[in-house]
């Protein structure tokens, strides 16, 4: 099956503007924490025995989601990583990025779509590595019917 780049990019963009904001808030983290070079897969795993421990485990899970996102961004190729960090972590507008990078509008939007899709391809590995669940962000084109 072929990746639907338009729908995947849209889904990843929604993820960054909705889910990631929730993850960061619940983990007590900030977007700047995602670019930390000290990200390591030190996922925490304990058994739940009481509500206080259960609440702590939820916080750990949100932290793990954030670390997974940060690692997935940092694991992208150089151009895609630059676009994602500028868009997500630095909150730069597309116009600001176009001026900084020097691409034409069309080239930038194509590259941004590629960056969002590369993130979608990498996030599941990092979610697994950090022992957490992040929804599948890739959207595939339906296969054509053979006659």
Brief write-up:
The protein is an all-alpha fold and 147 residues long. It has helices at residues 5-17, 19-27, 51-74, 78-89, 94-101, 105-129.
Structure write-up:
The protein has 147 residues and is mainly α. It has one domain. 62% of the residues lie in helices and 0% in strands. The chain has helices spanning 5-17, 19-27, 51-74, 78-89, 94-101, 105-129. The longest helix is centred in the last third of the chain and has 25 residues, at 105-129. It starts with a helix and ends in an 18-residue tail after the last helix. 27% of the residues are buried. The model has no long low-confidence stretch (mean pLDDT 89).
**β-strand number:** 0
Class computed from helices, strands and strand pairing: mainly alpha
Helix content: 55-70%
Global morphology: globular
Radius of gyration: 17 Å
- Largest sheet: number of strands, sense, barrel closure: none
Distinct helical segment count: 6
Topology:
Blueprint: H1 5-17, H2 19-27, H3 51-74, H4 78-89, H5 94-101, H6 105-129
Helix pairs in contact: 1-6, 2-3, 3-6, 4-6
Give the tags.
6 helices; 0% strand; globular; 147 residues; single chain; mainly alpha; 62% helix
């Amino acid at each position: 099956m072929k990746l639907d780049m338009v729908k995947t990019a849209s889904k990843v963009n929604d993820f960054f503007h909705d889910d990631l904001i929730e993850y960061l808030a619940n983990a007590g983290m900030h977007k700047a924490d995602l670019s930390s070079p000290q990200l390591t897969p030190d996922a925490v795993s304990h058994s739940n025995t009481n509500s206080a421990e259960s609440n702590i485990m939820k916080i750990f899970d949100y932290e793990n989601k954030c670390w997974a996102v940060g690692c997935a961004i940092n694991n992208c190729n150089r151009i895609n990583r630059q676009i994602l960090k500028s868009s997500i972590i630095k909150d730069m507008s597309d116009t600001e990025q176009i001026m900084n990078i020097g691409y034409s509008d069309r080239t930038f939007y194509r590259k941004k779509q590629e960056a969002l899709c590369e993130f979608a391809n990498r996030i599941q590995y990092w979610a697994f590595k950090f022992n957490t669940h992040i929804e599948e962000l890739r959207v595939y084109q339906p296969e054509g019917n053979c006659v």
